[in-house]
Design a protein that fits this description.
This protein is α+β, with helices and mostly antiparallel strands. About 65% of the residues lie in helices and about 10% in strands.
Length: about 475
Protein backbone atom coordinates (compact mmCIF):
# COMPACT_ATOMS: atom_id res chain seq x y z
CA UNK A 1 0.00 0.00 0.00
CA UNK A 2 1.36 3.41 -0.97
CA UNK A 3 0.83 6.69 0.83
CA UNK A 4 0.96 10.21 -0.49
CA UNK A 5 3.48 12.58 1.06
CA UNK A 6 0.72 14.51 2.83
CA UNK A 7 -0.92 11.40 4.30
CA UNK A 8 2.40 10.00 5.44
CA UNK A 9 3.32 13.28 7.14
CA UNK A 10 0.02 13.42 9.02
CA UNK A 11 0.40 9.87 10.26
CA UNK A 12 3.96 10.56 11.35
CA UNK A 13 2.92 13.63 13.31
CA UNK A 14 0.08 11.72 14.95
CA UNK A 15 2.46 8.95 15.99
CA UNK A 16 4.90 11.46 17.44
CA UNK A 17 2.13 13.18 19.40
CA UNK A 18 0.84 9.89 20.82
CA UNK A 19 4.32 8.79 21.80
CA UNK A 20 5.17 12.02 23.58
CA UNK A 21 1.76 12.16 25.26
CA UNK A 22 2.20 8.64 26.61
CA UNK A 23 5.67 9.46 27.91
CA UNK A 24 4.33 12.58 29.62
CA UNK A 25 1.63 10.62 31.41
CA UNK A 26 4.35 8.48 32.96
CA UNK A 27 5.97 11.61 34.49
CA UNK A 28 4.34 12.03 37.87
CA UNK A 29 5.06 14.83 40.30
CA UNK A 30 6.32 13.36 43.62
CA UNK A 31 4.23 13.95 46.71
CA UNK A 32 5.72 16.63 48.94
CA UNK A 33 6.21 15.87 52.65
CA UNK A 34 3.40 16.97 54.94
CA UNK A 35 3.83 19.94 57.24
CA UNK A 36 3.54 19.71 61.00
CA UNK A 37 0.35 21.46 62.15
CA UNK A 38 0.79 24.85 63.80
CA UNK A 39 -0.14 24.94 67.54
CA UNK A 40 -3.48 26.53 68.29
CA UNK A 41 -2.26 29.06 70.87
CA UNK A 42 0.80 30.74 72.34
CA UNK A 43 1.38 29.70 75.96
CA UNK A 44 -2.23 28.49 76.22
CA UNK A 45 -3.39 32.08 75.66
CA UNK A 46 -6.32 32.30 73.24
CA UNK A 47 -6.55 36.03 72.63
CA UNK A 48 -8.72 37.21 69.78
CA UNK A 49 -6.54 40.22 68.99
CA UNK A 50 -2.88 40.72 68.20
CA UNK A 51 -0.55 43.67 68.59
CA UNK A 52 0.66 42.84 65.09
CA UNK A 53 -2.59 44.35 63.78
CA UNK A 54 -1.79 47.72 65.41
CA UNK A 55 -0.24 50.32 63.13
CA UNK A 56 3.24 51.43 64.09
CA UNK A 57 2.00 55.02 64.54
CA UNK A 58 -0.35 53.83 67.29
CA UNK A 59 1.98 51.24 68.77
CA UNK A 60 4.93 53.60 69.29
CA UNK A 61 3.50 56.42 71.38
CA UNK A 62 6.50 58.75 71.02
CA UNK A 63 6.14 61.51 68.38
CA UNK A 64 9.93 61.73 67.95
CA UNK A 65 10.12 58.03 67.12
CA UNK A 66 7.17 58.31 64.74
CA UNK A 67 8.93 61.09 62.83
CA UNK A 68 12.10 59.01 62.57
CA UNK A 69 10.19 56.04 61.18
CA UNK A 70 8.46 58.26 58.63
CA UNK A 71 11.86 59.57 57.52
CA UNK A 72 13.14 56.00 57.21
CA UNK A 73 10.18 54.94 55.07
CA UNK A 74 10.93 57.82 52.73
CA UNK A 75 14.72 57.64 52.50
CA UNK A 76 15.91 54.16 53.50
CA UNK A 77 18.09 52.75 50.71
CA UNK A 78 17.25 49.09 51.39
CA UNK A 79 13.59 49.97 50.96
CA UNK A 80 14.30 51.76 47.70
CA UNK A 81 16.18 48.73 46.40
CA UNK A 82 13.23 46.54 47.41
CA UNK A 83 10.94 48.76 45.34
CA UNK A 84 13.19 48.31 42.31
CA UNK A 85 13.13 44.53 42.80
CA UNK A 86 9.35 44.76 42.70
CA UNK A 87 9.59 46.55 39.36
CA UNK A 88 11.81 43.76 38.03
CA UNK A 89 9.29 41.14 39.14
CA UNK A 90 6.41 43.13 37.65
CA UNK A 91 8.27 43.36 34.33
CA UNK A 92 8.93 39.61 34.36
CA UNK A 93 5.23 39.01 34.94
CA UNK A 94 4.34 41.18 31.95
CA UNK A 95 6.79 39.22 29.82
CA UNK A 96 5.32 35.86 30.84
CA UNK A 97 1.80 37.22 30.39
CA UNK A 98 2.61 38.40 26.87
CA UNK A 99 3.86 34.92 25.88
CA UNK A 100 0.24 33.73 25.78
CA UNK A 101 -0.76 36.18 23.06
CA UNK A 102 0.33 36.09 19.41
CA UNK A 103 3.14 38.25 18.11
CA UNK A 104 2.94 40.50 15.04
CA UNK A 105 6.02 41.23 12.92
CA UNK A 106 6.43 43.42 9.88
CA UNK A 107 8.43 41.70 7.10
CA UNK A 108 10.20 43.13 4.07
CA UNK A 109 12.06 40.49 2.04
CA UNK A 110 13.89 41.26 -1.17
CA UNK A 111 15.51 38.55 -3.28
CA UNK A 112 17.83 39.47 -6.14
CA UNK A 113 18.56 37.19 -9.11
CA UNK A 114 16.72 34.20 -10.50
CA UNK A 115 15.87 31.06 -8.64
CA UNK A 116 18.28 28.37 -9.79
CA UNK A 117 16.97 24.89 -10.49
CA UNK A 118 18.64 21.95 -8.82
CA UNK A 119 19.93 18.81 -10.54
CA UNK A 120 16.62 17.01 -10.07
CA UNK A 121 14.76 19.61 -12.04
CA UNK A 122 13.12 21.43 -9.15
CA UNK A 123 14.02 24.64 -7.43
CA UNK A 124 16.47 24.78 -4.57
CA UNK A 125 13.61 24.88 -2.09
CA UNK A 126 11.38 22.25 -3.65
CA UNK A 127 9.38 21.34 -6.71
CA UNK A 128 9.58 23.76 -9.64
CA UNK A 129 5.79 23.86 -9.90
CA UNK A 130 5.33 24.99 -6.28
CA UNK A 131 5.62 28.73 -5.75
CA UNK A 132 7.10 29.31 -2.31
CA UNK A 133 6.54 32.78 -0.94
CA UNK A 134 9.90 32.60 0.82
CA UNK A 135 11.57 32.49 -2.61
CA UNK A 136 9.81 35.67 -3.70
CA UNK A 137 9.87 39.29 -2.68
CA UNK A 138 7.47 39.80 0.20
CA UNK A 139 6.18 42.91 1.98
CA UNK A 140 3.60 42.42 4.69
CA UNK A 141 2.86 41.15 8.18
CA UNK A 142 3.35 37.82 9.87
CA UNK A 143 1.99 36.65 13.21
CA UNK A 144 3.17 33.74 15.34
CA UNK A 145 0.95 32.20 17.99
CA UNK A 146 1.76 29.19 20.13
CA UNK A 147 -1.50 27.54 21.15
CA UNK A 148 -1.39 26.91 24.89
CA UNK A 149 -3.24 23.59 24.65
CA UNK A 150 -1.79 22.08 27.82
CA UNK A 151 -1.68 25.26 29.93
CA UNK A 152 2.13 25.45 30.07
CA UNK A 153 2.25 29.15 29.30
CA UNK A 154 -0.50 29.84 31.81
CA UNK A 155 1.49 28.02 34.48
CA UNK A 156 4.53 30.15 33.67
CA UNK A 157 2.39 33.26 33.92
CA UNK A 158 0.95 32.20 37.29
CA UNK A 159 4.43 31.40 38.57
CA UNK A 160 5.63 34.87 37.59
CA UNK A 161 2.61 36.43 39.27
CA UNK A 162 3.26 34.53 42.51
CA UNK A 163 6.90 35.57 42.34
CA UNK A 164 5.77 39.16 41.94
CA UNK A 165 3.60 38.84 45.07
CA UNK A 166 6.53 37.29 46.91
CA UNK A 167 8.69 40.27 45.95
CA UNK A 168 5.99 42.63 47.21
CA UNK A 169 6.01 40.82 50.54
CA UNK A 170 9.78 41.07 50.45
CA UNK A 171 9.32 44.82 50.57
CA UNK A 172 7.08 44.36 53.61
CA UNK A 173 9.87 42.36 55.25
CA UNK A 174 12.25 45.27 54.70
CA UNK A 175 9.70 47.71 56.13
CA UNK A 176 9.05 45.55 59.21
CA UNK A 177 12.74 45.07 59.95
CA UNK A 178 13.49 48.73 59.33
CA UNK A 179 10.73 49.95 61.66
CA UNK A 180 11.91 47.55 64.37
CA UNK A 181 15.55 48.55 63.94
CA UNK A 182 14.78 52.27 64.12
CA UNK A 183 12.72 51.75 67.28
CA UNK A 184 15.41 49.62 68.92
CA UNK A 185 18.19 52.11 68.18
CA UNK A 186 15.97 54.93 69.44
CA UNK A 187 15.30 53.17 72.74
CA UNK A 188 18.97 52.30 73.06
CA UNK A 189 19.81 55.98 72.67
CA UNK A 190 17.36 56.94 75.41
CA UNK A 191 18.82 54.25 77.64
CA UNK A 192 22.36 55.45 76.97
CA UNK A 193 21.29 58.97 77.93
CA UNK A 194 20.15 57.65 81.31
CA UNK A 195 23.35 55.65 81.72
CA UNK A 196 25.44 58.74 80.96
CA UNK A 197 23.44 60.78 83.48
CA UNK A 198 23.96 58.05 86.05
CA UNK A 199 27.69 57.96 85.43
CA UNK A 200 27.99 61.75 85.61
CA UNK A 201 25.99 61.81 88.85
CA UNK A 202 28.31 59.21 90.35
CA UNK A 203 31.30 61.25 89.19
CA UNK A 204 29.98 64.14 91.29
CA UNK A 205 29.58 61.85 94.31
CA UNK A 206 33.07 60.44 93.85
CA UNK A 207 34.58 63.93 93.50
CA UNK A 208 32.95 64.89 96.79
CA UNK A 209 34.30 61.70 98.38
CA UNK A 210 37.78 62.45 97.04
CA UNK A 211 37.71 65.94 98.54
CA UNK A 212 36.55 64.45 101.82
CA UNK A 213 39.35 61.89 101.93
CA UNK A 214 41.88 64.63 101.17
CA UNK A 215 40.60 66.60 104.15
CA UNK A 216 40.78 63.42 106.22
CA UNK A 217 44.41 63.01 105.19
CA UNK A 218 45.26 66.60 106.14
CA UNK A 219 43.72 65.95 109.53
CA UNK A 220 45.74 62.77 109.90
CA UNK A 221 42.74 60.48 109.78
CA UNK A 222 43.50 58.99 106.33
CA UNK A 223 46.55 57.94 104.38
CA UNK A 224 47.87 58.71 100.92
CA UNK A 225 46.84 55.21 99.89
CA UNK A 226 43.18 56.08 100.55
CA UNK A 227 43.52 59.24 98.44
CA UNK A 228 45.00 57.22 95.58
CA UNK A 229 42.22 54.64 95.78
CA UNK A 230 39.52 57.31 95.56
CA UNK A 231 41.40 59.03 92.72
CA UNK A 232 41.66 55.78 90.77
CA UNK A 233 37.96 55.13 91.19
CA UNK A 234 37.13 58.63 89.94
CA UNK A 235 39.40 58.26 86.89
CA UNK A 236 37.80 54.90 86.03
CA UNK A 237 34.30 56.40 86.19
CA UNK A 238 35.33 59.37 84.04
CA UNK A 239 36.73 57.03 81.38
CA UNK A 240 33.45 55.11 81.52
CA UNK A 241 31.62 58.37 80.74
CA UNK A 242 33.82 58.98 77.70
CA UNK A 243 33.14 55.47 76.41
CA UNK A 244 29.41 55.97 76.89
CA UNK A 245 29.50 59.24 74.91
CA UNK A 246 31.26 57.38 72.08
CA UNK A 247 28.55 54.70 72.14
CA UNK A 248 25.91 57.41 71.86
CA UNK A 249 27.66 58.96 68.87
CA UNK A 250 27.97 55.62 67.09
CA UNK A 251 24.33 54.73 67.79
CA UNK A 252 23.19 58.09 66.42
CA UNK A 253 25.27 57.52 63.29
CA UNK A 254 23.84 54.02 62.84
CA UNK A 255 20.33 55.42 63.12
CA UNK A 256 21.09 58.14 60.60
CA UNK A 257 22.46 55.49 58.24
CA UNK A 258 19.17 53.58 58.37
CA UNK A 259 17.35 56.84 57.72
CA UNK A 260 19.45 57.27 54.57
CA UNK A 261 21.14 60.50 55.62
CA UNK A 262 24.48 61.79 56.85
CA UNK A 263 25.18 62.07 60.62
CA UNK A 264 22.90 64.58 62.32
CA UNK A 265 21.50 65.08 65.83
CA UNK A 266 18.67 62.71 66.72
CA UNK A 267 15.71 64.45 68.41
CA UNK A 268 14.40 62.26 71.21
CA UNK A 269 12.42 62.23 74.43
CA UNK A 270 13.98 63.59 77.59
CA UNK A 271 14.09 60.22 79.36
CA UNK A 272 13.29 56.59 78.74
CA UNK A 273 11.57 56.53 82.13
CA UNK A 274 8.93 58.96 80.86
CA UNK A 275 7.91 56.71 77.94
CA UNK A 276 5.19 54.18 78.53
CA UNK A 277 6.16 50.64 77.64
CA UNK A 278 3.96 49.47 74.73
CA UNK A 279 1.46 46.85 75.82
CA UNK A 280 2.59 43.51 74.50
CA UNK A 281 0.41 40.74 75.91
CA UNK A 282 -2.24 40.67 73.18
CA UNK A 283 -0.44 38.20 70.94
CA UNK A 284 -3.47 36.66 69.26
CA UNK A 285 -3.32 33.20 67.71
CA UNK A 286 -0.51 31.54 65.73
CA UNK A 287 -2.78 31.65 62.69
CA UNK A 288 -2.75 35.46 62.98
CA UNK A 289 1.02 35.32 62.74
CA UNK A 290 0.76 33.36 59.49
CA UNK A 291 -1.47 36.06 58.03
CA UNK A 292 0.57 39.02 59.28
CA UNK A 293 4.23 38.06 59.02
CA UNK A 294 5.45 39.21 55.59
CA UNK A 295 8.34 36.72 55.49
CA UNK A 296 5.90 33.81 55.90
CA UNK A 297 3.65 35.28 53.21
CA UNK A 298 6.67 35.71 50.97
CA UNK A 299 7.67 32.07 51.45
CA UNK A 300 4.08 31.00 50.74
CA UNK A 301 4.01 32.82 47.40
CA UNK A 302 7.42 31.40 46.52
CA UNK A 303 6.05 27.92 47.25
CA UNK A 304 3.06 28.53 44.98
CA UNK A 305 5.37 29.80 42.23
CA UNK A 306 7.46 26.65 42.57
CA UNK A 307 4.33 24.50 42.23
CA UNK A 308 3.40 26.24 38.98
CA UNK A 309 6.94 25.88 37.67
CA UNK A 310 6.82 22.13 38.32
CA UNK A 311 3.60 21.83 36.34
CA UNK A 312 5.03 23.88 33.49
CA UNK A 313 8.19 21.75 33.45
CA UNK A 314 6.09 18.57 33.36
CA UNK A 315 4.14 19.88 30.37
CA UNK A 316 7.38 20.46 28.47
CA UNK A 317 7.20 16.77 27.55
CA UNK A 318 4.07 17.44 25.51
CA UNK A 319 4.18 18.64 21.89
CA UNK A 320 3.56 22.31 21.18
CA UNK A 321 1.30 23.68 18.47
CA UNK A 322 1.77 26.99 16.67
CA UNK A 323 0.07 28.92 13.88
CA UNK A 324 1.68 31.50 11.62
CA UNK A 325 -0.80 33.54 9.59
CA UNK A 326 0.58 36.08 7.12
CA UNK A 327 -0.71 38.69 4.72
CA UNK A 328 1.18 40.88 2.28
CA UNK A 329 2.34 41.56 -1.25
CA UNK A 330 4.24 38.69 -2.81
CA UNK A 331 5.78 38.09 -6.25
CA UNK A 332 9.00 37.12 -8.02
CA UNK A 333 9.72 40.72 -8.91
CA UNK A 334 9.27 43.66 -6.63
CA UNK A 335 7.27 45.86 -9.09
CA UNK A 336 4.90 43.00 -9.84
CA UNK A 337 4.16 42.55 -6.14
CA UNK A 338 2.35 45.90 -6.13
CA UNK A 339 0.04 44.93 -8.98
CA UNK A 340 -3.26 44.24 -7.27
CA UNK A 341 -4.89 41.85 -6.80
CA UNK A 342 -2.40 39.36 -8.13
CA UNK A 343 0.33 40.32 -5.71
CA UNK A 344 -1.83 40.00 -2.59
CA UNK A 345 -1.04 36.87 -0.57
CA UNK A 346 -2.89 35.56 2.48
CA UNK A 347 -1.84 32.32 4.11
CA UNK A 348 -1.67 30.24 7.27
CA UNK A 349 1.14 27.96 8.37
CA UNK A 350 0.74 25.40 11.14
CA UNK A 351 3.41 23.65 13.12
CA UNK A 352 3.77 20.87 15.65
CA UNK A 353 6.94 20.52 17.69
CA UNK A 354 7.54 17.28 19.58
CA UNK A 355 10.60 17.06 21.88
CA UNK A 356 11.70 13.63 20.71
CA UNK A 357 15.44 14.15 21.04
CA UNK A 358 15.28 16.56 24.02
CA UNK A 359 14.01 14.14 26.64
CA UNK A 360 17.18 14.28 28.74
CA UNK A 361 17.22 18.07 28.77
CA UNK A 362 13.53 18.30 29.66
CA UNK A 363 13.90 15.62 32.34
CA UNK A 364 16.81 17.53 33.88
CA UNK A 365 14.73 20.71 33.96
CA UNK A 366 11.83 18.80 35.48
CA UNK A 367 14.05 17.34 38.22
CA UNK A 368 15.47 20.78 38.91
CA UNK A 369 12.00 22.28 39.38
CA UNK A 370 11.03 19.44 41.74
CA UNK A 371 14.11 20.10 43.87
CA UNK A 372 13.33 23.83 43.88
CA UNK A 373 9.77 23.02 44.93
CA UNK A 374 10.99 21.01 47.90
CA UNK A 375 13.36 23.80 48.89
CA UNK A 376 10.48 26.29 48.78
CA UNK A 377 8.38 23.98 50.99
CA UNK A 378 11.17 23.55 53.54
CA UNK A 379 11.76 27.30 53.53
CA UNK A 380 8.06 27.89 54.21
CA UNK A 381 8.11 25.42 57.09
CA UNK A 382 11.26 26.99 58.48
CA UNK A 383 9.76 30.48 58.42
CA UNK A 384 6.72 29.26 60.40
CA UNK A 385 8.87 27.47 62.97
CA UNK A 386 11.15 30.49 63.30
CA UNK A 387 8.20 32.86 63.75
CA UNK A 388 6.61 30.69 66.43
CA UNK A 389 9.96 30.37 68.21
CA UNK A 390 10.52 34.11 68.18
CA UNK A 391 7.08 34.84 69.63
CA UNK A 392 7.51 32.28 72.40
CA UNK A 393 10.98 33.56 73.29
CA UNK A 394 9.88 37.19 73.45
CA UNK A 395 6.80 36.40 75.54
CA UNK A 396 8.84 34.54 78.11
CA UNK A 397 11.54 37.21 78.05
CA UNK A 398 9.10 40.06 78.67
CA UNK A 399 7.69 38.40 81.79
CA UNK A 400 11.16 37.59 83.14
CA UNK A 401 12.45 41.10 82.45
CA UNK A 402 9.56 42.61 84.37
CA UNK A 403 10.58 40.56 87.40
CA UNK A 404 14.27 41.32 86.95
CA UNK A 405 13.58 45.05 86.65
CA UNK A 406 11.54 45.04 89.86
CA UNK A 407 14.34 43.25 91.73
CA UNK A 408 17.05 45.56 90.40
CA UNK A 409 14.97 48.57 91.33
CA UNK A 410 14.90 47.32 94.92
CA UNK A 411 18.62 46.52 94.77
CA UNK A 412 19.44 50.06 93.60
CA UNK A 413 17.39 51.60 96.42
CA UNK A 414 19.17 49.45 99.01
CA UNK A 415 22.63 50.28 97.63
CA UNK A 416 21.85 54.01 97.55
CA UNK A 417 21.05 53.81 101.24
CA UNK A 418 24.26 51.83 101.72
CA UNK A 419 26.28 54.66 100.15
CA UNK A 420 24.75 57.22 102.50
CA UNK A 421 25.30 54.90 105.47
CA UNK A 422 28.94 54.21 104.55
CA UNK A 423 29.67 57.94 104.19
CA UNK A 424 28.20 58.68 107.61
CA UNK A 425 30.07 55.80 109.23
CA UNK A 426 33.30 56.88 107.53
CA UNK A 427 32.95 60.40 108.90
CA UNK A 428 32.39 58.95 112.37
CA UNK A 429 35.32 56.61 112.08
CA UNK A 430 33.21 53.46 112.07
CA UNK A 431 33.90 52.45 108.43
CA UNK A 432 37.00 52.27 106.28
CA UNK A 433 37.51 54.05 102.99
CA UNK A 434 37.44 50.69 101.20
CA UNK A 435 33.86 50.18 102.38
CA UNK A 436 32.91 53.57 100.97
CA UNK A 437 34.58 52.81 97.64
CA UNK A 438 32.88 49.42 97.46
CA UNK A 439 29.46 50.93 98.20
CA UNK A 440 29.90 53.57 95.49
CA UNK A 441 31.06 51.01 92.90
CA UNK A 442 28.18 48.67 93.60
CA UNK A 443 25.53 51.37 93.38
CA UNK A 444 26.90 52.49 89.99
CA UNK A 445 26.79 48.93 88.70
CA UNK A 446 23.26 48.44 90.04
CA UNK A 447 21.96 51.65 88.45
CA UNK A 448 23.50 50.76 85.08
CA UNK A 449 22.09 47.23 85.28
CA UNK A 450 18.64 48.61 86.12
CA UNK A 451 18.76 50.95 83.12
CA UNK A 452 20.00 48.17 80.86
CA UNK A 453 17.12 45.95 81.96
CA UNK A 454 14.62 48.67 81.09
CA UNK A 455 16.24 49.02 77.67
CA UNK A 456 15.95 45.27 77.16
CA UNK A 457 12.26 45.44 78.04
CA UNK A 458 11.62 47.96 75.28
CA UNK A 459 13.75 46.06 72.77
CA UNK A 460 11.96 42.80 73.56
CA UNK A 461 8.55 44.39 73.06
CA UNK A 462 9.72 45.72 69.68
CA UNK A 463 10.98 42.24 68.72
CA UNK A 464 7.64 40.73 69.74
CA UNK A 465 5.79 43.32 67.67
CA UNK A 466 7.95 42.45 64.66
CA UNK A 467 7.64 38.70 65.28
CA UNK A 468 3.85 38.99 65.18
CA UNK A 469 4.00 40.73 61.80
CA UNK A 470 3.63 44.32 62.98
CA UNK A 471 5.30 47.33 61.43
CA UNK A 472 3.91 47.42 57.89
CA UNK A 473 0.63 48.55 56.37
Amino acid sequence: MFFSNKSFLLQLLAAVALTVTYSCKSIEVPVLPEMEPVPETFLDIADSSSIGDISWEAFFNDPNLVQLIEAGLENNLDLRMALERIEIARTQFRISKGAIYPTMDGIVRYRSGDIRPNLLGGTINGDRNVVNRLENNFIGFQSTWEIDVWGKLRDRKEASFEQFLATENGRHVVVTNMVAEIAKLYYELLGMDIELETIERNIEFQEMALELIKIQKMAGRATELAVQQFSAQLLSTKSLAIEKRQEIIETENNLNFILGRFPAPIPRASSLLEIKLPYAMDVGLPSDMLLRRPDIQQAEHELRAANYNVEAARKEFLPSFSFTPYVGLNDRSLPAAFEMPGGLTIGLLGGLTAPIFAQNRIQAGFDREIASNKIALYNYQQRILDGYREVMNQLQRIENLRTVYSLRDEETAVLLNAVSTSNELFRGGYATYLEVITAQSRVLEAELSKTNTRIEMFLTVVDLYRALGGGWK
